[in-house]
Amino acid sequence: xxxxxxxxxxxxxxxxxxxxxxxxxxxxxxxxxxxxxxxxxxxxxxxxxxxxxxxxxxxxxxxxxxxxxxxxxxxxxxxxxxxxxxxxxxxxxxxxxxxxxxxxxxxxxxxxxxxxxxxxxxxxxxxxxxxxxxxxxxxxxxxxxxxxxxxxxxxxxxxxxxxxxxxxxxxxxxxxxxxxxxxxxxxxxxxxxxxxxxxxxxxxxxxxxxxxxxxxxxxxxxxxxxxxxxxxxxxxxxxxxxxxxxxxxxxxxxxxxxxxxxxxxxxxxxxxxxxxxxxxxxxxxxxxxxxxxxxxxxxxxxxxxxxxxxxxxxxxxxxxxxxxxxxxxxxxxxxxxxxxxxxxxxxxxxxxxxxxxxxxxxxxxxxxxxxxxxxxxxxxxxxxxxxxxxxxxxxxxxxxxxxxxxxxxxxxxxxxxxxxxxxxxxxxxxxxxxxxxxxxxxxxxxxxxxxxxxxxxxxxxxxxxxxxxxxxxxxxxxxxx
Length: 481
Prior knowledge:
This protein has helices spanning about 35-50, 110-115, 145-155, 160-195, 200-250, 255-295, 300-345, 345-390, 395-455, 470-480, and strands at about 5-10, 15-20, 65-70, 75-80, 85-90, 95-100. The protein is α+β, with helices and mostly antiparallel strands.
């Protein structure tokens, strides 16, 4: 085992540059008070245990201090502290290494090189057994029984049983606390579930209410459709009345068309008569010229010829006279036709309306079919309205609709409750799984304790044999927990 051969202090508290060489055996440092003897111990603790902390260890007026500890195997450990640096310098077998970033704990590499570190008894007790402070009582003699037991257990290597026991106790306490919390939570959940014990019955009632509500909605939709058909029927009836008026105005269209055709024929005949009248006038003029010519003619033969021509012309004249009489009759008919034409001045407009009437007549058959269906719907609608108002169903329907709306709201709340119940059941299942997991861990810890007890035949404190009955008693105690 290595021992400390020397210590070198530079600017550490009252020491500006002090080096002490140690010899084998006991070394004693003597001198008056306040001369730096305690500072040497503080310097050792600063290197070995990182105590004391802070920057008060630096000599007044300086910004850097260092303490070097050299072992008999040539290893040297130097602790350096300045304003912006805090590090260890380790020289082993001529190799130099620097380690910065020193925290509250001593670096493991430093403990490994020096083979010195605080002894861990539990999380609150870490005594420094290598260096005794001034006025400290002897180690273990002044400690309590539990501290001595922990120290001896650590020395002989059975301290892990105590640590395992503490961990088991802590785990059991935590498990019991969680079990109590989960039990209370489970009881609270059960109490909440009791509030919804009648959900199935309410669900049946809500389903019935929803069905009734749907039926009422369907009837209301049908009623609206019938009212719409009624309005359409009214508009169609109005259109049919207008068509009847139009048809009444156009009843004489056929006779008017016949008169127009006759008038056109009379017009053609009148044109022919006018042409004949023109020819007749020309013939009369020719006869006059012929008579004058006969009076002056010197040749009889020519006169006979002209006479023959005159006779022919006279026959034509007779025919013309007859045609004139017919023309007079035609003129009378033309006057009658003119009166008819005057009465039919609005005929083009009537013809357009006639075309519209023909188009509307095509739809009239469709309207009549719709009218018959609509009449049936109207009769059915009146029957429904009569039944509704005769039996006072309207108020009942209104009441049921209000009730259904309330039940729909309740249905929404029930769905929210179902969602909350599912969440609670999920949490309940997770809690059950967690309890099973804790129970499994508890069994594992008990098994570990059983193996530890079986591996130890005597008590580490009193070094007496532990009988199997005592082991079984300990195990049964932990199993009951």
